[in-house]
Design brief:
With 1523 residues, this protein is α+β, with helices and mostly antiparallel strands. It has ten domains: 1-21 and 157-296, Beta-Lactamase, CATH 3.30.450; 46-150, PAS domain (Beta-Lactamase, 2-Layer Sandwich); 316-425, PAS domain (Beta-Lactamase); 461-548, Beta-Lactamase (2-Layer Sandwich), CATH 3.30.450; 555-680, Beta-Lactamase, CATH 3.30.450; 699-809, Beta-Lactamase, CATH 3.30.450.20; 831-933, Beta-Lactamase (2-Layer Sandwich); 949-1047, PAS domain (Beta-Lactamase, 2-Layer Sandwich), CATH 3.30.450.20; and more. The strands form eleven sheets. Strands 43-42-41-46-45-44 form a six-stranded antiparallel sheet. A hairpin with a 4-residue loop joins strand 26 (702-707) and strand 27 (712-715). It is extended, with a radius of gyration of 57 Å.
């Protein structure tokens, strides 16, 4: 930015200068101004950039170090944050801005309170609206007496052209340091000044000027022409022009241009600077110039490279792309559009992952990561999404692009479309894999036969494997195939081969048996084809496959048996299978599904709608949701309730799987299992768990259970209380560390838990001390028991804690009290004896004396052996040995010799102790077991009786051990075992019983051993006299299982007969339910016809009415259900041609033609044959009225006669239809009467409301008028006298002032009274009291006026009124409810009054409406406010908005809107009903809105409407006509 010596440059006058746009220059150093940034960052002195208000905008590292803050903490602060309290920052700031530059010394206080002494230089407008502040820390030398020298002189850096230049010796140390610093910066830092006469010079330029321009800096300090002479002639005009524009506009200058260096080189430079106008009219630029020659060379080389690159890729058939390191496209070649359909904008700056197939994305991402590691990717194949929405295969090579420093900047890729080739490769590979997989997985072998030489070649080892040979064994050709075929299968095999050779079959296929290596036979399926013929049309080459179908043959034979077993298993397990066609919704059920749903398997499956009715009403929505999920392709497994025809509710489990076709669900299939017993058991289990929780919470001990890692799974309330918690859930998931007082205590508890779980032994009643938070200690008794899962593995631990501090203290006290111990000793019901080691009695309690018959004194003379019979000597020796080795003996039983000579059976247990004298003693506890022995004898007698009872039971009995081996039996006189006892005793049941009986028996034995519950099993056996039914019951008998088997054939037959009866009853109930499901007569008749048609399987069923009042009498068919191939019977038929039919139906007799062909009723026979019926029946029905109807039906088939049970059912149905018809008639009559009563009741209510409201308002109006009159008189008196009172007060106060003026020193008594009454305060406060009284009286007058306006007793006729006055009067009355009080906030009232004309209306009635609506709005706001929690109340402000406007020339609208609680749909439906209210009893009559509705609609012929949203608010709108 150097100008020629003479340039005509005229600075605009000050008034025309444009202020510098602070937004055009960044407040910090520009980001491309790298030299200044480097200088700013490397400076040793603290440097800060500040704005016009003194706030820091930027700071270099030295400033952050000086002030002790990070840059982000420093930004936004000011110098006053660090100066001492005595420093006048504001004054210094204004002086500095006025002078432009200032230097001084100041003390700074850092955030850590360290005081630093600094010199500072401040330069105003260093940049536009930004200022430079430089600090130097002189804390170490602050004692120097010389004044502080500025870091930069307080004048221009360089002199003007007329002044001599400073020598190096005259330069300040600071300027010298600055020059030394800039010498090492690349480029030129300069100060350039342009004078008004066009002269220019460089007050300052760094040494970089010499390198770039070949000019010494000191040569241009007076004239800058030499620098401008170096500018390239082609660039000089542009340089000078941009400088002039920058100086004229005072905007930053930025320019790139060339320099002609004296050494002949052309140098490209980039210059930028900021201009500043000087007071004398010159302009100074502060800027920086840097050499960009290499950058320009690289740009030119890059342009040439890019040109070649683009020419190359534009002519490639492949797609070329560049991907940045973040995975987004930065370039795509034009080929992308022709191959994939994408234009540049579709892909640029988008991630490649967006178009890669999800299954291939992982390999592509891995390849991309490897390429970023400078690995070349070759032949990467993947699928890509084209613009048409389909994926196609591409192959790609990828390499990296590096910058000049060798860093990866992007990846270059070339992609090729290979979809057709890839599809072919995939198809071939998949075909080969499928063939090989099919052969290997199906065990299929391949073979080839030469028909000329009869040589057979097998291509794989499947044939050897089929024959039982190893792969390495060699089979003789003679025995390879033909000679191994079973003799019975050779002839059919040759016949099939002959047919194929003759061309009768395209493919040869034959199944035959083949002898294997071990001599056994297997079934072989051979499929082949002759593929080569010789010239004479003789077969040459015969190839094919073979597979082992032995299992299939066996399966085919077992299929029938398996099907039968499956049906039986479903019946036993109450498990049925079903399917549904999604398109037609046709259901298909197994027999067990019918039984589960309480239906007969002979019945047809219901429709889907009918089937939905079979589920519990509360579960139908749940079922439909599951069906919707299934239709979306989600398999289902859920439990649901069904409602059987007899009303019984049962539980079933439904599992559903899906069949897809073309990605659409076409069929659902699954199973239904009756789980009623399981569901009830689960309910009982839940109740048991709740009971257990109640018991645990009732325990006084603290109980907690944990998992194997000592993590809390649950606890009782005592544990919660002990550890100061609020609920058991608070402790779930915690460990001992969370509520122990110390880590050592937690470690102790965990180790204890670990020991119990690892040893699988409980820790019982461990007594230890624990420390409380207050430092005290308690005694705690702990019991820890391991928990086991169903497999017996330890899964956790349960711990029981009890504070036994009081018990320990009591025990300590007990030990100190010998008297208490003696009392316990004497009162113990068991005998307690103390012997020495020789057996002499030392102590004995009363129970021991009673047991032996000796007193203590007598016992002291005896020995233990004196009471022991001799036959116990050997047993006594054993117990004494046990006492010597373990210190204990017993418990064991013996007899004592009583003093009276008889023997007393006893049980003893003893403990050896060491006395205080060092001797050995034995404490023994003796229990009298006389009664126990008697009970044992009674038990033996009972067992004998039980054995006799078992012998008397006629059932067969068997006993099994845990291994399912027969160990005992008892035969039954009524039935014999299938196998003689000697053949099954000691044998496993699987070796004796048939499989169908052994398997369930074994399972029930296992279930009995597992659950300890009795199991029941019923089965059938085919005996010589027919099929017999048996019942087996299994019960636990010690370690074995006891089974009782009883024949129940007679019971089963009785149940079958009962089931048939039940089925017919259920059918009748079902049909009756269908008929009587409605009270509509047409629906009843149609339901009856439909039910009979479905249940009796007739081809047509109709309902008729007999009309005797016509001539001739007629039968009218009104409802029918029929087979589509029959014509409709609907219509009327004269009865004069059917005398026999009429004879039967008039007295109510059933009439039938069974079959039609054999009937003697020729007219009816001819009609039936014409209608296509084989059998005919009519059942007359006499209703309770005068009408007679009937059910008419028929079947096409003549071989299906009417059965007795069908006729009986029809009679029952006829009765039900007659009852239903009678009920429908009664319902229609009651409906008519009910409507009349409702209309009368509504009219009565309206009349009652009007009477009550009229009386109430009349009384209210009189009361209000009386109150207003009585209040108005005294208030007028008060208000009228207040004016005089105010004047009198002024006079008196003025008189006092005059007295004080002329008598400033009153007597002492007056002075004391003046102080007592606080005369000064009284003088200032008394006028305020008078004004307050005026305001109160005025308020009372307004209220009285509002009451009079509201009542309007004198305006009972229609009059033109101002509705705004009525609204304001109502608001005045409600002011107390609106203004708020205490903590209840004010309700805001917003008025949007329009310009309404006077409206002719009943003013007092409208006031009632306004009062009701406004009261409801206030109460709705209060109700919503009360629904908020206390912390949210501050966010809610109640608001009522009143809006009035003219709708058109004939109507006005008054709208009252609130933001209260709002109303739900149910309340809105009943809002205007008389006596309907949502308020509590005693708080509302329910007549307000009903009355308001009548006033608006009936009295004023207007409209009252509303809209409300629950939780938002309500709006009422009144529309009144203008007259």
């Amino acid at each position: 930015m150097l100008l020629p010596r003479q340039i005509e440059f005229h600075l605009p006058p000050p008034c025309d200068r444009q202020p510098l746009d602070s937004g055009s220059v960044h407040p910090f150093f520009p980001p491309d101004n790298q030299p200044f940034q480097a200088l700013f960052a490397a400076a040793l002195d603290a440097m800060l950039i500040i704005d016009d208000r003194g706030y820091y905008l930027d700071a270099n590292p030295a400033a952050c170090s000086l002030l002790g803050l990070r840059p982000q903490d420093l930004m936004g602060g000011t110098l006053r944050d660090f100066t001492t309290p005595g420093f006048d920052f504001d004054q210094s700031w204004h002086n500095w801005l006025a002078q432009g530059q200032i230097c001084d010394r100041v003390r700074l206080i850092r955030p850590d309170l360290e005081v630093r002494e600094v010199e500072y230089v401040a330069k105003a407008n260093f940049w536009a609206d930004c200022h430079l502040l430089i600090f130097r820390d002189v804390t170490e030398v602050k004692g120097a007496p010389d004044p502080v020298k500025p870091l930069i002189p307080n004048q221009e850096i360089s002199p003007s052209p007329g002044e001599p230049h400073l020598t190096k010796s005259q330069q300040s140390e600071e300027e010298y340091r600055f020059q030394q610093l800039t010498r090492h910066l690349p480029g030129v830092i300069y100060q350039f000044r342009l004078l008004p006469d066009g002269q220019s010079y460089f007050p300052y330029a760094s040494d970089g000027l010499r390198d770039i321009y070949g000019v010494a800096p000191e040569t241009v300090r007076e004239d800058g022409a030499r620098v401008f002479e170096s500018v390239h002639p082609e660039d000089l005009p542009r340089v000078t022009q941009t400088i002039l524009e920058s100086g004229k506009q005072l905007t930053p200058w930025h320019c790139e241009y060339r320099i002609c260096h004296p050494n002949g080189k052309i140098i490209w430079v980039l210059a930028h600077s900021t201009p500043q106008a000087e007071p004398e009219g010159s302009i100074t630029w502060y800027g920086y110039i840097r050499d960009i020659t290499e950058l320009k060379a690289r740009e030119k080389a890059l342009e040439m490279s890019e040109s070649k690159f683009r020419n190359l890729i534009d002519n490639l058939n492949d797609m070329v792309f560049i991907i940045d390191t973040d995975g987004t496209f930065s370039y795509v070649s034009p080929t992308f559009e022709s191959i994939m359909g994408y234009i540049d904008s579709d892909l640029l700056h988008h991630s490649f992952a967006e178009i890669v197939h999800p299954e291939d994305l992982q390999i592509c991402m891995e390849a991309f990561e490897r390429s970023l590691q400078q690995e070349n990717i070759r032949g990467l194949e993947y699928r890509v999404l084209h613009k048409n929405g389909h994926y196609y295969w591409h192959s790609t090579n990828v390499s990296v692009l590096l910058d000049h420093e060798g860093q990866v900047i992007a990846c270059l890729g070339i992609a090729r479309y290979i979809h057709d080739q890839k599809q072919a490769e995939i198809a071939v590979r998949e075909s080969h894999i499928r063939l090989q997989l099919a052969l290997d997985t199906t065990g299929t072998g391949t073979w080839e036969c030469n028909m000329q030489t009869q040589e057979m070649v097998c291509s794989n080892n499947q044939w050897k494997k089929f024959l039982g040979y190893d792969a390495e064994e060699i089979i003789d050709q003679e025995w390879l195939w033909e000679n191994r075929v079973h003799p019975e299968d050779k002839s059919p095999m040759y016949q099939e081969l002959e047919k194929h050779i003759k061309g009768e079959t395209e493919i040869y296929k034959n199944e035959h048996r083949v002898r294997c290596k071990d001599g056994s036979y297997k079934w072989n399926l051979a499929i082949g084809k002759i593929v080569e013929w010789d010239e004479e049309d003789n077969p040459v080459r015969f190839i094919g496959i073979q597979s082992d179908v032995t299992d299939r043959k066996a399966n085919e034979l077992a299929l029938v048996e398996l099907t039968e077993q499956l049906q039986k298993a479903q019946q036993v397990a109450h498990l049925g299978n079903w399917s549904i066609d999604v398109t037609t919704q046709k259901l298909t059920w197994s027999d067990e599904v019918f039984r589960i749903l309480g239906m007969n398997p002979d019945q047809p499956e219901p429709s889907w709608t009918e089937h939905l009715e079979q589920f519990h009403p509360d579960d139908r929505a749940f079922l439909q949701a599951r069906v919707m999920e299934a239709q979306e392709g989600i398999p289902q497994n859920f439990d649901i309730r069904i409602l059987r025809p007899d009303g019984e509710v049962r539980y079933v489990n439904v599992r559903a799987e899906l069949e897809f076709r073309k990605n659409q669900v076409v069929r659902m299939f699954g199973t239904t299992m009756d789980i009623t017993e399981r569901a009830l058991a689960e309910t009982e289990l839940d109740q048991s768990r709740e009971l257990l929780r109640t018991i645990l919470d009732a325990l006084p001990q603290s109980v907690v259970w944990k998992d194997r890692h000592s993590v809390v799974l649950g606890c009782n309330q005592a544990f919660v209380k002990a550890f100061r918690g609020s609920s058991p859930e608070e402790f779930i998931g915690k460990t001992d560390e969370d509520f122990s007082l110390s880590p050592e205590e937690a470690t102790h508890y965990k180790n204890c838990d670990r020991q119990v779980m690892s040893s699988d032994r409980p820790l019982l009643k461990l007594v230890e001390t624990v420390q409380n938070p207050d430092g005290s200690k308690n005694w705690v008794e702990t019991t820890k028991i391991p928990l086991h899962d169903r497999t017996g593995q330890v899964m956790g631990i349960v711990a029981i804690f009890e504070d036994i501090t009081e018990r320990i203290q009591a025990e300590a006290a007990l030990r100190t009290s010998e008297e208490k111990l003696r009392s316990l000793f004497e009162l113990c019901p068991l005998g307690i004896i103390l012997n020495d080691i020789q057996g002499h009695f030392i102590e004995a309690n009363a129970a021991a004396s009673h047991l032996t018959g000796y007193t203590l004194g007598e016992l002291n003379q005896l020995s233990y052996w004196d009471l022991t019979p001799e036959e116990y000597n050997e047993a006594e020796a054993i117990q004494l040995n046990l006492l010597q080795t373990t210190g204990r003996y017993g418990p064991y039983q013996k007899q004592y010799i009583h003093k009276q000579g008889h023997r007393v059976p006893v049980e003893l247990i003893g403990l050896r102790i060491q006395g205080s004298d060092g001797g050995q003693y034995i404490w023994s506890i003796i229990a009298d077991i006389t009664e126990r022995k008697a009970a044992e004898k009674a038990l033996q007698d009972s067992e004998t009786q039980t054995r006799a009872l078992l012998e008397a039971i006629p059932d067969m009995m068997l006993r099994y051990n845990r291994d399912k081996v027969f160990v005992d039996y008892k035969c039954s006189p009524q039935m014999s075992p299938l196998v003689p006892p000697e053949e099954f005793l000691g044998q496993n049941l699987y070796d004796v019983l048939p499989d169908f009986l052994a398997k369930p028996t074994g399972q029930l034995i296992e279930e009995t051993l597992k659950t300890h519950q009795m199991q029941l099993f019923e089965y059938e056996l085919v005996m010589p006299d027919g099929v017999r039914n048996y019942e087996a019951r299994f019960a636990l008998c010690g370690e074995d299982v006891f089974s009782i088997i009883r024949e129940i054939t007679d019971r089963k037959q009785a149940e079958a007969r009962l089931q048939a009866l039940l089925k017919r009853t259920q059918l009748l109930n079902h049909i009756s339910t269908e008929i009587r499901n409605s009270l509509d007569l047409d629906t009843i008749l149609q339901n009856a016809v439909n039910a009979i048609f479905a249940e009796l399987e007739v081809d047509i069923c109709t309902f008729i009415w007999y009309h005797s009042d016509t001539e001739p009498p007629t039968l009218e068919v009104v409802k029918e259900q029929k087979n589509p191939q029959l014509a409709s019977w609907l219509g009327s038929y004269p009865m004069d041609n059917y005398p026999q039919l009429l004879e039967h139906i008039l007295p109510g007799k059933m009439y039938r033609l069974d079959p039609v062909a054999n009937s003697s009723d020729e007219p009816l026979k001819a009609w039936c044959q014409k209608a296509g019926l084989g059998t005919y029946l009519i059942l007359p029905i006499h209703t309770a009225g005068v009408r007679m109807g009937g059910l008419e039906m028929g079947r096409i088939a003549s071989d299906r006669s009417w059965q007795d049970d069908e006729l009986e059912l029809l009679h029952s149905i006829g009765t039900q239809v007659a009852i239903a018809i009678y009920q429908a008639q009664l319902y229609q009559d009651s409906q008519a009467k009910s409507q009349e009563l409702q209309q009368a009741y509504r009219e009565l209510q309206d009349t009652q409301v009007q009477l009550i409201q009229a009386e109430k308002m009349s009384s209210l109006g009189q009361l209000v008028a009386g109150v207003a009159h009585e209040i108005n008189n005294p208030v007028s008196f008060i208000y009228g006298n207040l004016a005089h009172t105010s004047d009198y007060t002024d006079y008196l106060l003025k008189l006092i002032q005059i007295y004080q003026k002329f008598y400033p020193n009153p007597p002492e008594e007056i002075t004391e009274f003046k102080e007592e009454i606080e005369l000064d305060f009284l003088i200032s406060d008394f006028p305020k009291i008078i004004n307050s009284m005026k305001n109160g009286a005025s308020r009372i007058r307004d209220i009285v006026q509002s009451l009079r306006t509201f009542s309007r007793l004198d305006e009972s006729d229609v009059k033109a009124v101002d509705l705004h006055e009525n609204l304001d009067s109502t608001l005045m009355i409600l002011h107390n409810r609106l203004k708020g009080h205490g903590r209840v906030p004010e309700i805001h009232v917003i008025k949007h009054y329009g310009n309404l004309p006077l409206v002719e209306c009943y003013s007092s009635l409208l006031n009632q409406v306004f009062m009701n609506l406004l009261m409801n709005a206030i109460e709705a706001i209060e109700e919503r406010r009360n629904s908020f929690p206390p912390e949210s109340l501050s966010d809610y402000v109640g608001c009522i908005t009143l809006t009035t406007r003219v709708l058109d020339k004939n109507r006005v609208s008054i709208e009252i809107q609130d933001n209260g609680i709002g109303m739900n749909a149910l309340v809105q439906e009943k809002l205007f009903n008389p006596f309907f209210t949502t308020k509590a009893i005693g708080k509302g009559t329910g007549m307000g809105l009903s009355t308001s509705y009548q006033i608006v609609t009936e009295n004023h012929q207007g409209i009252l409407r509303f809209s409300s949203t629950e939780g938002v608010g309500t709006e009422f709108a009144i529309e009144l006509p203008l007259k």
